[in-house]
Amino acid sequence: MRKFSMVLMCLLLSASVLAACSGGSKTAGGDNQGSGSDGSGSGGTTATTDAGKSEDDITQKKITIKIHYPLPDQKDLRAQEDDKIKRFTEKYPNVTIVKDDWQYSVNEIGIKMASNEAPTFYNTFATEAQMLVERGWVADISDLYNKWEYKDEMNPLLQNQFMVDGKVYGVTQNGYITSTMINKALLDAKQVPVPPLDWTWDDMYNTAKGAADVKKGISGIAPMGKGNEAGWNWTNFLFEAGGEIQKVENGKYTAAFNSDAGVKALDFYKKLRWEANAIPKDWALGWSDALNAFQQGRTAMVIAGAYDVIDAALNQGGLKPENVLAYPMPAAEKGGKHYGILGGNYLVINPNATKDEQEMAFRYITFDYFTDKGLEALEGNIQERKSNNKYFVPAPLNYFKDDSEYGKKVAAIYDKYDNVYKYDPNLFGLLDGKPEAQYGTQDYYGAMSNVVQELFSKKDTDSKKQLDDAAKLVQTKFFDEIKPQQ
Amino acid sequence: MGEPATAMLKPEAKSEPAGRRTSRWKKHLWGYLFILPAIVIFILFLWVPIIKGAVYSFFTIDFVKGNTFVGFDNYARVLHDPDVWTAVKNTLYYMFLTVIIGFWVPIVASIAISELRFFQGFARIAAYLPFVVPGVVLYGMWRWMYDPVGPINGLLSSFGVEPVSFISDGRWSMISIVFMETWQQFGSAMLIYLAGVLSIPRDWYEAAEIDGAGVWNRIRYITIPSIRNLIVLMFILQIIGTSQAYQSQLALLDGGPNNTTLTYALLIVKYAFNQLDYGSATALGMLMFIVLSLLGLLQFKMNKEDY
């Protein structure tokens, strides 16, 4: 009897292992029309309760959507999201919301899509748009977007980042133009004057050189030197020098970053490294390493999206708002453009979800957009942070236009609180956002990372040769393989 | 329970009658049922991925639009990629460094600890403790140790040596990783060696001591010959393990600077998760699988000889 029980348990265990490993039947593979879903789609389930009456009325259908949900330590954001879920399900009582706190990662999205485990909608970044569209990992939501009443009020600068070949693939939440953040306290400590806001590469060079204190391990500037971020950081300088990543002629993509502008931008990096000795001695810093260095007071300048740097510096690093200055990227020369790469946060919808799930996800994403409830949630967030002695750092760019009625209401809320970080009002007039290349951007960044690393490690590199070699590699390995979306 | 003894003494018939086969099946049925979960788990999590990997290496993988058969294109692509050869060289260099810098450390530590008369337990725990340090803490801690104004450079500067960029300088980066890993991992191997050393009969040592053998001679003529097979086995296991290394290289330097810490396994990870080219990644994985299988066979053969 005992033996029999053990065997029974073994069989049950085997069965449960098999059950756990069996994937749900996919709605992918082209058939994501949503009709006749058996409820096993990745994004959620759809079932028509009363086929005769409510076939076309999505509000009458039983739909489950798996939503993008904040991480456990983001308690205030979770509380906001819970409130939104409550209000949403009051309006759509047939909808069931499943929370999923998976946060987008380029290393994980492929696995999520393969296993049909990605939420019905998920967060992502502007840098990922082309890759996600190329892979087919985001749904084309053009129909939903074009029918939406607020589509014309969206900030076009940000929204256009997720529009590829005229199709809409995501909804923007907020964004930024890559900027330079300055730790004023470190400049003061070395009596380095604060540069003008309309600054140039020369100003950046002098500021970095003056603020660097090698003996104390403080660098003047920390250009990222590890991972694809190294290429991303450098590309801002490429743009400022008037260069481009790629050019398109007759549908063929050609590497263009090995231009004179590219050489000029790379030579500027060389000057910072070898002439000014202004970058960290241990320069292999990724995005988070560089941000940490800034908030720890180990570098006077860092290049990234303003929100991320400032929020970490104020709320984790304990820096004072008056010592954290947001600057545009410097112009190559006086009167030049302050180009910075456009970036932002987006919500995109899972193409494996059924049409009904996609529509309900779209309704959920845009539920608070341009509404008073959205304003209430924002104010609640600021108050919550104030009660915790934390600062609220507004995104430099929002999904709405700053000069719109809604934008003015938001600005009025910001003005009410002293824990809201205030950007220099002249900053926004100087920011020149430039979108990334349309295809193969991450591959290009990866190749440029090696170029930057070689330049930082060897003193007398030949910039032109380095760029030509990288361009040849990127061209043959990646750009020649590009098949633009039809 | 079981067959009668007379039945077991009978010579095997060339073709068993059906009744006999059923009876033998019944005899082993319980055993098969007991190992069923293990078999299921092995098939699902070991053999299915291996076979799927082999199949995927001949396809362009697209989880949404569907896979496309490309024959040997993935293999051709990776074999023409100069990064692959850089990664192979780096991996061999890393394996060499781990042998030179790290392989002898646990052997020496185990012998030294076995010779201790007091505090042997404390020494064992102290040596093993780094092994339980989580990866994130380890990398943060050693990043600080290697910092240009960190303790190691502080020590060097007290002797008038210029600060060394242990992480960013391509000449030092792989060596720095190996030192860090040796510090963390020698305790685990040390315990295995220690078990081997402590299993050597004490009377051999006592006899040697009576014959006038000192510590060095005891180690040379008793300890090392006694654990020789264990050393060879651990060496093969280390070769297999280090050939697949990528964690530290990824976490500390992402393969940089300028690809000097790009190992073969890290390149597979980059193909799969940076370039999202799972087909080429699995092709690289299959090439590695062939090489490691040969090493695995060698280890298996040695195990067989040992037991």
From TrEMBL, chain B:
Q: What is an example of a Pfam family matching this protein? A: BPD_transp_1
Positions of the ABC transmembrane type-1 domain: 88-299
**Gene Ontology CC annotations of this record:** plasma membrane
User: Where does the chain cross the membrane?
Assistant: 29-50, 92-113, 125-145, 182-200, 221-240, 278-298
Membrane disposition: Multi-pass membrane protein
- Give the family from UniProt: Belongs to the binding-protein-dependent transport system permease family.
In its UniProt entry, what is this protein called?
ABC transporter permease
The record lists the lineage as:
Bacteria, Bacillati, Bacillota, Bacilli, Bacillales
